[in-house]
Structure prediction request, 109 residues.
Amino acid sequence: MTNPLVEAFFVGRAVAEVLTERMENTFTDTLSELGKFEAEAKEHLRAFTEEVMEKANRAAEAAGTGEAATGMGQTSSSEPDDLQAVIDELRAEIALLRTEIQRYRSNSV
Prediction:
């Protein structure tokens, strides 16, 4: 390679190839980490939901009601059939409680 233009071409091409490979690796690593994070978040949410339901059931039993509440007056089993349905019910109750709190605050002012 005596011609500097030819040498610059090959160096530039090599730089572009190395940068492309590194960007691909970084992108795939990022997607992998994002997938792991999402899976871990779902697992934490499932564990949190189970813990909340267990505590609610224990509190209901301790209160002497004998009925384990899931959020909408249903009895719960040891394993929820549809986790998304339980989450949706909890979100609906939270929204209802927020509305009631806002109504209470606006009436007390």
